[in-house]
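Progress note, sequence design subtask.
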């Protein structure tokens, strides 16, 4: 994937300035504590973006290894992590090809629907095998994904947003098309940066993200050697998943049953 590169990565936090990262991180921490019966000391984060969840989790006492496949996003994340003096290690890594660490993690997390970027079943299976290899026995995998029922019924084909920096105005045009058969949303982002000196810059990215049903995800869990524990309606304790639920946060436990796609016991 070549998403979130260059100027897009630099503007990423502006695009999501109203996202409640601290609240989401607290929910993640609380659910991991609830399901494990103890606080997670070591967490591996996949697709960490600019590191905002990781920084908030570090404030809660966690040691974080935060990974992403975008070097541009990691550059922003590392700068912010250094400023916050957070206990975080940032690494460039493709989540579909995770290396095995010497010391397993208490938990692995993957937020902001990032698992959907993997697309094909085989890529998701490879990622889950890597997650399982890097978890301690009984360790937890917590992740967020787009809910298929809501996406199909309620997606917006076109969205326009205007934002301001100290030196420019940003206009972001998002155009979404759905591939229902493959359960994928293809989103083209056109960004216009209008500068105070009268000039402007334009750049564009097209991203594809898969959406899932709860049953489909549980099928992945069973094949990959995980026990599904809960599927939450977003970052809330509600288990009531409806066609108004855009995002689902799932929690799985590494089971004693071996993965059908890997060779590790």
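Output:
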């Amino acid at each position: 994937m070549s998403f979130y590169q260059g100027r897009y990565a630099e503007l990423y936090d502006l695009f999501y300035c109203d996202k409640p990262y601290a609240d989401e991180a607290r929910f993640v921490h609380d659910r991991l504590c609830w399901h494990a019966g103890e606080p997670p000391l070591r967490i591996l984060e996949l697709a960490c973006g600019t590191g905002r969840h990781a920084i908030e989790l570090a404030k809660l006492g966690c040691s974080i290894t935060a990974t992403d496949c975008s070097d541009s996003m990691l550059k922003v994340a590392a700068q912010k992590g250094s400023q916050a003096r957070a206990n975080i290690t940032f690494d460039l890594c493709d989540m579909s090809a995770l290396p095995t660490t010497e010391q397993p993690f208490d938990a692995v997390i993957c937020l902001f629907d990032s698992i959907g970027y993997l697309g094909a079943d085989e890529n998701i299976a490879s990622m889950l095998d890597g997650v399982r290899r890097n978890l301690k026995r009984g360790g937890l995998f917590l992740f967020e994904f787009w809910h298929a029922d809501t996406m199909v019924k309620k997606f917006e084909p076109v969205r326009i947003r205007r934002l301001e920096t100290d030196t420019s105005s940003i206009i972001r045009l998002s155009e979404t098309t759905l591939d229902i058969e493959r359960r994928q949303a293809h989103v083209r982002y056109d960004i216009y940066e209008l500068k105070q000196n009268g000039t402007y810059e334009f750049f564009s990215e097209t991203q594809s993200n898969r959406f899932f049903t709860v049953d489909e995800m549980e099928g992945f869990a069973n094949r990959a050697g995980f026990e599904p524990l809960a599927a939450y309606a977003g970052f809330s304790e509600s288990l009531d998943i409806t066609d108004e639920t855009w995002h689902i946060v799932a929690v799985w436990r590494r089971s004693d049953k071996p993965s059908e796609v890997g060779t590790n016991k």
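The chain has a mean pLDDT of 94. Work on this subtask will continue into the next period as scheduled.
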